[in-house]
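User: quick one, fold this
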Amino acid sequence: MRLRVSYTTPKELAAAVEQMAHGAILVPSTAEVAFDAAIELELVLPDGSSLISAGRVLHVLPGHGVAVTIEPAIAEQLKARVGAPRAAEEPTHAQKIHQALHGTRDQRNAILRDRNRQLHAYVLKNPQITVDDVLAIAKNPIMGADMYKLISERQDWVQRPQIAIALARNPKVPGDIAVRALAYVAPDALRQLAKGGAPPHVVTAARKKVIGK
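Assistant:
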C-alpha cells in the first residue's frame, strides 16, 4: 500500500522531523491498514519535491492516521532540509519544565514532542492533565517506556478500561505492563483482544484469561 503526506511549510516539515526522532512519523490517512503492514510512503516537501520511503505501520490511530517508520537514509535527507532554530527562539530547559508542569494542553503537547524525553514525565504531573490526555499518551506509540510505566503505576488511570485497553494494544508498551493492564479490561474487550488486534504476547495472555487458565 502507498500512502502520501504533504508538508506545505518548513514548520510542518520540522514537526515531522521531531516525530521521527521518536521512531515514527504520523501520516493522516483514512485508508484501512493493519499493524505492522508494509507501506510505501511518499513525502511531498514544501518545495514540491518528493521522497519515497519503505516503512511499516507501528500503530493505527483511528481518526488521526497511522504511525509509520521510514528508512534511515530518508530520515537523514529530511533532517538536512530543516534548518536549526535560532537559540533565542528555543525555550530553556527550565522553561520547558515549567510548561510541562503548569502549561496549557498545547504547551504540554509541545513538550511531549520534544526530543529530550526526560521532560515528558513532567507532563503527567501537571494538575490540568485530563483522562483524555492520559489516554492519548497511552495510545501514542512514540512515547518512551517510562511514560507507560508511570501511567500504569497510577491506579486512578490504569483502572479505567479505556486506558488499560490502550496500554494493552500499544505495541511499544513493555510486555509486562501491557499484560498487567488486562486485569482492568472489561470482559467483552478482553474477548476481542483474545482474537487479535494487539501484540502477540497480549493476545496470548488475553486468551488465557478468557478460558480461565
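User: anything notable?
Assistant: The two ends are 39 Å apart (CA to CA).
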